[in-house]
């Protein structure tokens, strides 16, 4: 009885194996995989190009931001006196610099 179960098990294993592909099927599969590879390579090249374009744009924006920050700092460094509006105005007060 053990021998018959072993023979039955071997038949199940052989039936679970995938069917061997014919030469024509293999060539078709290879051809479709090569086409897919070319498409993917083109997509990757387009993505690389887009990435480089965006990096260049990002660097340009960063340089513009730095230049803007520098110009704002220079404007902030120019000091001028504003009157303190909390202090009552007195014509004799000379503490407040006025551009009159």
UniProtKB/TrEMBL annotation:
Q: Where is this region: Disordered?
A: 1-29
Q: What is this protein called?
A: Uncharacterized protein
């Amino acid at each position: 009885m053990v021998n018959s179960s072993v023979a039955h098990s071997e038949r199940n294993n052989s039936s679970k194996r995938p069917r061997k592909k014919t030469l024509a099927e293999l060539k078709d599969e290879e051809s479709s995989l090569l086409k897919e590879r070319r498409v993917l390579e083109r997509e990757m090249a387009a993505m690389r190009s887009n990435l480089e374009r965006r990096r260049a744009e990002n660097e340009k924006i960063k340089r513009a931001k730095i230049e803007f920050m520098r110009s704002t700092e220079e404007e902030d460094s120019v000091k001028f006196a504003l009157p303190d509006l909390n202090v009552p105005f007195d014509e004799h007060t000379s503490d407040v610099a006025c551009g009159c």
